[in-house]
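Quick one - inputs below.
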Amino acid sequence: MKIENTKAQMRKGVLEFCILSVLKDEDAYVAEILDTLKDAKLLVVEGTIYPLLTRLKNAGLLNYRWEESTSGPPRKYYGLTETGKLFLKELNTTWSELHNAVTIVTSQKTTKK
Amino acid sequence: MNKTVNINLAGIFFHIDEDAYLKLQRYLEAIKRSFTDSQGRSEIIADIEARIAELFSERVENDKQVIRIKEVDEVISIMGQPEDYLVDDEIFEDEPNASYSKKSSSSTSNRKLFRDTDNSYVGGVSSGLAHYFGIDAIWIRLAWILLIFGAGTGILLYILLWILVPEAKTTAEKIMMTGEPVNISNIEKKIKDSLENVTETVSDVAKNVSESVSSAAKSIDVKKGANSIKSSSRTFFDTIGDIIMFFFKVFAKFIGIILIIVGASALIGLIIGLFSVGVADIIHVPGLDLVDIANAGNTPIWLISLLAFFVVGIPFFFLFYLGLKILINNLKSIGNIAKFTLLGIWLISIISLIIVGIRQASEYAFDESYIEKTELPIMANDTLNIRMVGNDNFNPNFYRNNHSFKLAHDDDGNKTIYSSDVDIRVKSTTDSVATIAIEKSADGRSYEIARERAKNINYNFDFRNNTLLLDSYLTTNPENKFSDQEVDVVLYLPENSVVYFNSSTKPFLYYRNYEGNIISRENTNHYMKILFDEAECLDCPEDDFNVNVDTPGLKINKEGVEVKSEDGSLKIDGKGLKAKSEDVKVNIDSNGIEIKSDN
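Output:
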């Protein structure tokens, strides 16, 4: 078992959740989503996001609209659908549960030492 | 100075250096390959292209600036390598959205053959094949070792696969290499799914129909139901189509395997053949001398074998290649240059073989003979004995075998061609003295060569005490090749002389008398008196008269003669004569003559 694989799996697992979270308040186009994720050091290269966005869109969690850009090609602005919002809510709960669980488990171990 | 290319990336126009363009193209191509259509490939690619266009426009200050390889490299490092695009399906297998997970499960990716260089000993061919066939690489390696012992064919096959099968470089390719197989259980699942669909819709329709019966106004629902059954029957037929396609693919693969086996075994056989002939030619295996001597055209054997190898081998190579292509979707092309070179070599080889063939055939174009005549002191009333003489080295048994040329060593140990193609003919002559004519003939490319070869035939006879000793063989130097050398011994014997052919001459005589040949095989071991154009046996027992005719109209045998026709019959035998016609009967026998007439 390689550490890189585990890391990548961890990161990819939360990536969908994070993308949905970025779009929670307002629509954004890819570069904006990317900036947020890159600032959070969640994403190293941009390539990963495109298949994920397409997946989420195909699953009906996201929709998009085109907007003209002054500096380049037209931009796809992504937003959450109703299902997406519900989905995100559920993921939020799961995440906090998971976060709690992980904190408990890891802190327990340190106290034992 | 650099050549530039104009590209349109997501609707934006860019000047780009050619090398940078090629790099970008390769990059996009690699990304394209890491997705399947069901993942929404075209959409993902369009998004990526749009992003790259955006990144480029950030880096270009004005319209005239050219994108260089540096910018492309920057963009690639931002976007990531093709493997970074991969979404590991396993992580998302427990997708909450059912409709989506169904979609992803239907996209069974085909396994593809790559060389697995991560687990390689030599070129990764074995581990690649192991992935492809879903077995442990150790078995493939064992098979190679066995094949290597099998006359080294394994090495050749390995090298071919090494060249033709691409290496799994990206993660995408590595995943494709171990991809999910199309197997029976998958088909089963598919059929079940579609059947369930159909039953569902049938019950739906039934419901709809019953509703529509209760209310005529709801007839639209029937339409709806009909539509839905239509669409689901379409998916059902799609599934059937998929199954048919699957069997078709299996069939194609089967043909591919057969082609590979046929092509490979033919190639291997040819290569072994070529090797053994080549090696034998170099180290001079004794048996090959015969071939060398039969080869009248003097074309080197290795050249002929090589030409034959190309003429036969190249089509089989293409068969082999075709088989591989059917079997392996992503097979590297051997390239047009290689294809046309092979085609060229093939044509040249065919033409050369034809030329060699014509040359070889022309060796037999001229058939010339050379005649030596000698007088023999045999006069009328003399008796001439004729015997054949063999040689311990050549034809000791007087066994005559037409066109059997053999190679032997003479007393001095020199190689010599010998043949027993010796014919004896006897003619009567009005001269007072007998003559023996030795007619030697041989074939050649030209009159001179044929005549020279005829002259070079050695044939001897000896005459002692009224006995003629004829060699039962002819010899010639191997330089003269097998060129249908033959010797005709023609004896001109004066009339009234007597000749006695020893039984040893039997195989060398003609079966029958013809064209002035007056002694045949039947006449050996008898004293034959020569008359004008015939010979009379002096000590032959009277031949039994033996006639046997058996037709519906006429019978002649030991018992007598019988003639039958519609009008009457006639029978003559030991008892007498019986004749019958419609009205008259005549009997002649020991009782006398009896004539009966109905009138």
